[in-house]
Amino acid sequence: MVLLSKKEERKKLENLIEKGKWNYVFEYGVVRWGFSVALFMILFTKFILDEKITSSDVFVYFIIFGICGILFGLWTWSNINEKIKAK
Question: Which residues contact 7 (CB under 8 A, 6 or more apart)?
């Protein structure tokens, strides 16, 4: 983990805000969080729980965790805006 100075952290947050809310929600919420969790759940179900995975299961996982990723992205976006206002 890299420790950033307050100035560097503020610049990073400003860059995220500059790119826009929905770009952030899609990239960090849906793609990075939602799809990663969906992939983890697919692999967990297949290899740890030893259950059969169908293509419809894969589709459902990506839809459910994609929607959850939108919510996660919106929540973290609001946290970013609170941090930037506090600094």
Answer: none
